[in-house]
Design goal:
The complex is a heterodimer of chains A (318) and B (251). With 318 residues, chain A is mainly alpha-helical. Chain A contains 13 helices and 2 strands. The longest helix of chain B is centred in the first third of the chain and has 29 residues. Classes of the chains: A mainly alpha (318), B mainly alpha (251). Chains A and B meet through helix 3, helix 4, helix 7, helix 12 and helix 13 of A and helix 1, helix 2, helix 3, helix 6 and helix 7 of B. The structure holds fe (ii) ion (3 copies).
Chain lengths: 318, 251
């Protein structure tokens, strides 16, 4: 293809997106579009499955059978999200094995929030309330993103995330209506999860790279700071209902702007975790790698068995 | 308790689902593929669902303010009635699958009989459970075949699991005092009658999976009488952690 023809295709492609048409896997797309989508979708998929670990940590210890079943179902939903997202990513011409390889080698990132430990039962409530809550704010705009398979996966995922969010909040509500010990557990969880949740929206707009391109492709519709503000405005009143305190002395409703002003995020901590040195980065990655390695013989056997069945079928047919 | 035998009988069935569900819960997020993680979680969810129905019923029989969670989480180890098979650890995926299959085959036979129980509640739980347990049996049976007849390594691992877990199968067919009482009243299932069908079916499937059926003379028992393996205390420590650390609270 000549340079001129590519330019032409490029223009047609951008025009389609501008008209709100969906791009499908078989359509022509610029290489940069493909690569950017592989990166973002796989990062999202990895976040879903790494996210199973901190919550999975409480399945065997859930305080009641009802909570145990709900938590299991939630963690299973996250596995399902990982599955749709890997599938969406595979339509861009990369295999699941390659994607796992990128995760295991540390080349691919996943959401930093999952590098914090779940130390009490209240953390399960806080994660549902705050982390799923933040995820929804990040992801709802993606239901209209330009790449069809990603947009469709997001519609389904967001529906389930909002269920998780309500369930998490309900755990917090039960704790806050419970004994002083339970309420203290809820407060402690909010203290530990609040700031990392704010960090889920990424660096400030001033520091954020490749935002403009992402806006054009509808991978992003609002800036990190806008989304973060939306999260704070939505969440602070919910904490008030619980009767627990957001751990930010500078937090204050601003009558003029109609938004909450808030304190400085510890960006050193943010970068430390992003660079792989959070409290659980090492354990999370090890858990994924070990599950993958310990499962190798199982996957090999399933493949060998399927081949044998296929051979039998062919032999029968001839 | 007026219905002590019925209560014990229910625990004898429900505790198997609870303890096996708990073992499967340990695996969530650590399996060989996302698909097997999702499937095993489904099975765990079914088992916990059944468990809850049984314990709600048991709690009602016990009377007073007892709840399903009291029954599930606030007993002494010696009061759990599950068979030794289901408490065995997740040594590797072969053990997980073989343990599951050896239990599912029994569980299905039990549910098929229990649906005819004179006790309406137990009959209803069993009827609902049959569909679920048939799916479990199909899943675990398929994986036994897949891994038994997969590679040399998978065959070896599966054979190891079968050889190790076989010793716990006989206990499935033992009758406790509560069993005998309930059989007499047309409520309970005479599991000793299921033994032949069970071993015939299991043998056939293991052979299809190119696995050798162990020729075992000695078997282990005790779970049904509350004498468990040394693994059980640790399993219960996790299961009961919150209820023991924070008694009398709502969650
Ligand atoms: Fe997500
Ligand atoms: Fe998710
Ligand atoms: Fe979620």
């Amino acid at each position: 293809m000549s340079e001129k023809e590519v330019k032409n295709l490029d223009a047609i492609f951008e025009a389609r997106i501008a008209r709100d048409e969906k791009i499908e896997p078989k359509d022509w797309m610029p290489e940069k579009y493909r690569q950017t989508h592989i990166r973002q979708i796989s990062q999202h998929a990895h976040s879903e499955i790494v996210g199973m670990l901190p919550e999975g940590n409480w399945i065997t210890r859930a305080p009641s059978l009802r909570r145990k079943a709900a938590l299991l179902a939630k963690v299973q939903d996250e596995a399902g999200h990982g599955l749709y997202l890997y599938s969406a990513c595979e339509t861009l011409g990369i295999s699941r094995e390659e994607l796992y390889e990128q995760l295991h080698s540390g080349k691919a990132k996943y959401s930093s929030i999952f590098n914090y430990p779940t130390v009490t039962w209240a953390d399960i409530g806080a994660i549902g309330w705050l982390v799923d809550g933040a995820a929804i704010i990040n992801q709802v705009p993606l239901c209209n993103t330009s790449f069809g398979p990603y947009a469709r996966a997001m519609v389904r995922v967001c529906k389930e995330e909002s269920f998780h969010q309500r369930q998490g909040y309900e755990i917090m509500l039960t704790l806050c209506k419970g004994t002083p010990e339970q309420k203290a557990m809820a407060q402690d969880a909010l203290n530990r999860w609040w700031w990392p949740s704010l960090m889920m929206f990424g660096p400030t707009d001033a520091e954020s790279t490749h935002t403009e391109q992402s806006m054009k492709w509808k991978l992003k519709r609002k800036t990190n700071d806008e989304l973060r503000q939306q999260f704070i405005d939505q969440t602070v009143p919910q904490a008030d209902i619980l009767g627990i305190t957001v751990p930010d002395p500078d937090l204050k409703f601003n009558e003029e702007t109609g938004h909450y002003d808030f304190g400085e995020i510890d960006w050193d901590e943010f970068w430390q975790v992003v660079k792989g040195h959070g409290p659980c980065n090492k354990q999370r990655l090890e858990a994924r790698v070990s599950a993958w390695e310990r499962g190798a013989w199982v996957r090999d056997a399933a493949m060998a068995y399927a081949d044998k069945q296929q051979t039998k079928k062919v032999a029968k047919a001839s | 308790m007026k219905n002590e035998d019925l209560y014990q009988y229910i625990l004898g069935i429900a505790d198997n689902s609870l303890i096996l569900g708990q073992r499967l819960g340990e695996l969530c997020g650590h399996g060989p593929t996302l698909e097997t993680d999702i499937a095993l979680t489904n099975i765990a969810l079914d088992l916990f669902g059944q468990t809850r129905s049984y314990y709600q019923y048991a709690a009602k029989l016990a009377g007073g303010v007892k709840t399903e969670d009291d029954v599930a989480m606030l007993r002494e180890e010696r009061e759990y009635r599950n068979v030794l098979l289901v408490e065995q650890p997740n040594t590797d995926f072969a053990f997980v699958i073989v343990r599951q299959y050896l239990f599912d085959e029994f569980h299905l036979l039990l549910m098929q009989e229990l649906q005819n129980s004179k006790d309406e509640m137990l009959a209803a739980i069993a009827k609902k459970g049959i569909k679920e347990v048939s799916y479990h049996r199909r899943f675990s049976g398929d994986w036994v075949k897949r891994l038994g007849d997969g590679t040399a390594e998978s065959n070896e691992r599966m054979q190891q699991a079968v050889d190790d877990l076989w010793r716990y199968t006989d206990e499935l067919f033992h009758l406790t005092k509560a069993d005998r009482e309930m059989i007499g009243q047309g409520i309970g299932v005479d599991v000793s009658q299921l033994r032949d069908t069970y071993y015939n079916t299991v043998t056939e499937l293991l052979q299809e999976a190119t696995l050798t059926v162990p020729e075992q003379e000695y078997f282990q028992k005790g779970g049904k009488e509350g004498i468990h393996s040394e693994h059980m205390g640790y399993l219960l420590t996790e299961l009961q952690y919150m209820q023991r650390s924070y008694p009398n609270m709502n969650w």
